[in-house]
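Human: I hope this is not a bother. Would you mind checking the protein record under this note? Thank you for your patience.
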Amino acid sequence: MLRIFAFTLFTLLSCEAVAEMLTIETRSHTVNGVTSKYVLEVNVEDVKLTPILDPAKDELPVSIEKAIELALKKYTETYESEPRGIASVSLNDFPTWDYKDRWHYKVEIIGDPHVSVVVLFNEKVILPRKK
């Protein structure tokens, strides 16, 4: 009986430790016949650390220039290669009603690999992970 209780407690604690993630994008690409899949997800706890704002009325706490700078720096550090450029930068809310008042930039970087990254308004940069 004690073992069942301990197992149940362990299972409950383990489930609570799993972070809730918001999926921003899933992408796959094939190079030389090998397909790689990436998922770009943001931890809800990181979202909660960003400011609540209305981009139509409030000044954005991170400029587009700063977002690009942060994204390129993180890309170069992580992939140890220089990106070839920026394909796009977009201002987006999060894909859930609970966080419609919180925003982020999505910066699509051309390089090897070609990926999108999220730049939060607290200057945290999130890269995709291989699936």
